[in-house]
Fold each of these.
Amino acid sequence: MDHFLKSKFETKAIHVGQPPDGTTGAIMTPITLATTYVQSSPGVHKGYDYSRADNPTREAYERCLASLENGQFGYAFSSGCAATTTIIMMLKAGDHVICSDDVYGGTFRLFDKVIQDKGIQFDYVDLTNIEALKNKIKPTTKLVWIETPTNPLLKIIDIQKVTEICNPKKIWTVVDNTFMSPYFQNPLDLGATMAYHSTTKYIGGHSDVIGGAVITNDSAVAEKIKFLQKSIGAVPSPFDCYLAMRSLKTLAVRMQAHEKNALQVAKFLESHSKVDKVLYPGLESHPQHSVAKKQNSGFSGMITFFIKGGLKESQKFLESVRVFALAESLGGVESLIEHPAIMTHASVPAENRKALGIHDNLIRISVGIENIDDLIQDLSAAFQKI
Ligand code: P1T
């Protein structure tokens, strides 16, 4: 057993799965690029036979990541969408999935345009409404996909309430924990079957590596995911694993910095005359602030707000920022800003976007860890351009 598994978050992030190298004493885990491993007799090897199945750098990263989610089993993938696909491959034609109505546009596209064609059925439900969830469950329901906070509307779903309904019925629950990171939210502790990440975001943290991950404590689910990981083969490269593992070491300090800045940006926006409404789980005005306070140890760095006006005002504002970069994605050290209706959620049909409230005056911010004065000044100057 890893000596550090019982340590606190910051210590686990630096040490679990990463003892000094047995051969050289190197303090950093080597990047093992080999695709294959020499066997002394057919089938006799040192635990590795082919790198799609097992790779030492990936294994170190998976162990560390699993420990941060208080999970026994962790699996890394070449993207968040690859991890989503692998999870869904546990299902078969005729199975039914209930998914948060407000999810990353790419998740919706994958379900709606790719997986549904294979005979798996989907219902999209506002999971902040537990009665609505209960009403949609059928005998064929096998999985509930919870994104919380949701992307981009930052709705907070009560994970424990959902798992209390699903677990007795043997319905798997997946929590997309991308926006909170394991530092602020641990879905497995709240009864979820799987914690999921687009590690491209806070876990990678530097906007230089695409990846995904699944963590579970359910050994039967773990066995299936491991089998599918090897069989489908959407695995990250050893270098990507190294980068993501290196990033884990600073996850705690980064998340604290993101949150500190985000709270100040959210308050600034809330008091600004050109802002209609701000959605940030850390603000008392957030509709599910009490749920966030209960299930999260912090509120992370994502903010969504409605600017006064419409597309014209949004465009002018987004063209005017200088410190915030107009770009998709989130969770990096640099502040990003984007327009969900045109960018990250363009694959959600216009009528769905309208029903959800993803309007043309909606702007999403990923608050980075630059100096807060520069961030506020940048937003302030951009508002003056409208
Ligand atoms: O991009 P990829 O690593 O494949 O992850 C997909 C994904 C899954 N879940 C959530 C909550 C996400 O936000 C994402 C990717 N999101 C963006 C690129 C974005 O800008 O919202």
Amino acid sequence: MASFITFEGIEGCGKTTQLKLLAGLLEKHGHQVVTTREPGGCPIADKVRTILLDAENRAMVPLAELLLYAAARAQHVAEIVRPALTAGKIVLCDRFTDATMAYQGFGRGLDPETIATLNRLAIGQLWPELTILLDCPVEIGLSRAIARIDNSQGAREERFELEARQFHQRVRDGYLQLAAQEPARFVRIDGGQDVQQVASAISSAVLARIGQGNR
Ligand code: TMP
């Protein structure tokens, strides 16, 4: 049965690890699962991701950033998310429209109406049914994210990790506000717990929504 589930949270909240664990569990339950992420998820959107996250692009103005997220999203929804859902698959997406509201809206201070309009335009009514918000204190998230940068030898993607602590606090508070506004869609889980505890909280929430599987 098709289902669209998104994962959200500040840097270092653990959502990427948890998304993979959930995908494995759902597959064991007989579901067909597509895992993807934003910004990115398909070749054109991945190119936009490279521009967005490049630490050298400090001069990028907030409006240009917002429009690039929207452009990447339109391509990703058309190429990956919509076809997978049409084919009856479960789509697990690492960040989606709420990230734009949290980062560009609450974080950068851009107009929420403009963001909502662009989100609608980019996704064409394809809203997630369930959003897992992995919430954790900024200090914990950022220390994990910075450790990851220090250990990585790949492409430099740290533009957002290097933002001021207050920026990340606004993003976290923004996510909590979004979750409070839509309690039926959001499930808030404490991302400061250990990996197995978080995984089991997520699997209970998701299996309760989508049932135990197709087998
Ligand atoms: P990631 O680190 O989870 O892959 O996300 C990449 C960065 O992009 C992260 O710092 C959050 C940021 N982002 C936004 O600012 N707005 C958005 O709409 C999305 C999808 C991500």
